[in-house]
Write a structure and sequence with these properties.
This protein is α/β, with parallel strands linked by helices and 228 residues long. It has one domain (3-222): 3-Layer(aba) Sandwich (Rossmann fold), CATH 3.40.50.300. It has helices at residues 45-52, 75-85, 101-106, 116-129, 145-157, 175-192, 203-207; strands spanning 3-14, 17-29, 34-38, 60-65, 86-89, 163-167, 195-199, 211-216, 219-222, 225-226. A hairpin with a 2-residue loop joins strand 1 (3-14) and strand 2 (17-29). 39% of the residues are buried. It binds adenosine-5'-diphosphate. The site of adenosine-5'-diphosphate has 12 residues, from strand 1, strand 2 and helix 1.
């Protein structure tokens, strides 16, 4: 099992006492599996995605990625683990404005010493795959919204992650562009056999996923009722 989430709870301390956002979340995904998580604003979807991305710790419960508990690692080891295993795609792509498209895709590879030529060849291949081989030297400001998001998809895959996490990846795009970005994301997920977890409000995006879950009352439920 590549991603195993068991009975995860998350409380945020507030002035009025702890706010219980996740109450009991369990989820198991193998490589090649994808799930779309829907649910109203404020239901805890981003909180869960942050925990899956090892950016935030659960208050209780466990997360295992490729059999390992990332939260047992020290700070530096965890950062290294995250960069090797997890790719992120956010609604606002977070591209570096002063860097070219190719440099942006290579950013995650800079933290570790490795074969630069190999990394660059793979980055070029990914950019070709997302249809941007003619835009390698453009700055993000010189791209359309859909193109920027495709750069973000390529960047998320450059380290060959096991887990791909996306928060409203098509949120700021028009319908047609959203459709093409969604298709690319799903195709690349299948090709790379990642675990893909997408959080979205878009029923249109969620429909394209074989598995859909809804966040409600701090737990993940199948849209028809409690998850099995
Ligand atoms: P969603 O992504 O479904 O919109 P979030 O995970 O962002 O929901 O937020 C879930 C709830 O947790 C919200 O009510 C939000 O106000 C609260 N929350 C999120 N982060 C914090 C924090 N750092 N401290 C306190 N409350 C928080």
């Amino acid at each position: 099992m590549s991603l195993e989430v068991a009975h995860v709870c998350k409380d945020y301390p507030t002035r009025n006492g702890p706010l219980s956002v996740l109450r009991d979340v369990s989820l198991q995904l193998h490589r090649g599996e994808a799930v779309a998580i829907m649910g109203p604003s404020g239901s805890g979807k981003s909180t869960l995605l942050h925990i899956l991305g090892t950016l935030d710790r659960p208050t209780a419960g466990s997360v295992k990625i490729e059999g390992k508990d990332p939260f047992s690692l020290g700070e530096h080891e965890l950062a290294d683990f995250r960069s090797r295993h997890i790719g992120f795609i956010f609604q606002d792509h977070h591209l570096l404005p002063q860097c070219s498209v190719l440099e942006n895709v290579l950013v995650p590879t800079l933290v570790r010493r490795g074969n630069r030529a190999e990394a660059e060849a793979w980055a070029r291949q990914l950019l070709d795959r997302v249809g941007l081989s003619q835009r390698l030297n453009h700055r993000p400001a010189e791209l359309s919204g859909g193109e920027r998001q495709r750069v973000a998809v390529a960047r998320a895959l450059v380290q060959h992650p096991v887990i791909l996490l996306a928060d409203e990846p098509t949120g700021n795009l028009d319908r047609r562009t959203a459709q093409s970005v969604a298709q690319l994301l799903l195709e690349l997920h299948r090709q790379e056999q990642t675990v893909l977890v997408v959080v979205t409000h878009s029923a249109e995006l969620a429909r394209q996923f074989p598995q859909r879950l809804e966040m409600a009352d701090g737990t993940l439920q199948s849209p028809e009722g409690p998850a099995p």
